Structure formats: C-alpha cells, structure tokens
Amino acid sequence: MTDELAITGLECFAHHGVFDFEKREGQIFIVDLVLGIDTRAAAASDDLEQTVNYGTLALDVKAAVERDPVDLIETVVQRIADVCLLDGRVEWTRVTLHKPDAPIDATYSDVALTITRTRGNAHD
C-alpha cells in the first residue's frame, strides 16, 4: 500500500530545447510530481523526519530543471524522476514536465511529457 504525495505547478525557468534561441533565451517549464510513499510512520509520530520533505524536494527538483541545458524534455523529466527517487522512502514517482511555450507554429495550450518510474527500474 502506498499513499500519494503531489506537488503541482512547480514553475522553473530553464534553457532546454533543440533550437539555439531556446538555449539562449530560456523559457518556463512547469513540473507536476506524484510520489508513492507510505505515510503511516509520519502520521503516527507527527515527525517530518519520517516522511518526504516536500519543501526540500521542490527546491531540489527546481535546481535539477534549471541546471545543465539539454535538447530534449525526455532528458529533463528523467533527471527529475531520478531526484525524486533519491529518497529511499519513495517507492515510485510520476513526473509530468510541461513546456507551455514550445516553439510550435500552431495554436495549442500545452506540450507535456509524463513518465512513471519505480525504485529499481528508474532507467528501464
């Protein structure tokens, strides 16, 4: 049994993309996270040390998104999942990376990639 901890709408500014202007000018990326964790120990103890500190996690994810520009959102979203799985209490994570200003010559509302990774198969 796992519970789900979610952080949605985490805004980051980064320089990812296949085009030179994306790397030069940067753009907004938005992250949604869901973590599968067992919260019973934290609930019983009322102790932050018994659960995932979502404040720290949000800052770690933001830093991971904003460093080291790459071409593909696939690379960035895997990087985020890896950060989420660093805490041994996280059994799985579902990460959505939104790129709302992707350079597409058409009207659209969002571009997003969602991946799910579990402990032990983070790169499978």
Automatic annotation (TrEMBL):
It comes from the Bacteria. Residues 5-117 form the Dihydroneopterin aldolase/epimerase domain. It catalyses: 7,8-dihydroneopterin = 6-hydroxymethyl-7,8-dihydropterin + glycolaldehyde. Keywords: Folate biosynthesis, Lyase. GO terms for molecular function: dihydroneopterin aldolase activity. It holds the Pfam family FolB. Its EC number is 4.1.2.25. Pathway: Cofactor biosynthesis; tetrahydrofolate biosynthesis; 2-amino-4-hydroxy-6-hydroxymethyl-7,8-dihydropteridine diphosphate from 7,8-dihydroneopterin triphosphate: step 3/4. SUPFAM superfamilies: Tetrahydrobiopterin biosynthesis enzymes-like (SSF55620). InterPro entries: Dihydroneopterin_aldolase (IPR006156), FolB_dom (IPR006157), GTP-CH-I_C/QueF (IPR043133). Belongs to the DHNA family. Catalyzes the conversion of 7,8-dihydroneopterin to 6-hydroxymethyl-7,8-dihydropterin. This is 7,8-dihydroneopterin aldolase. The gene is folB.
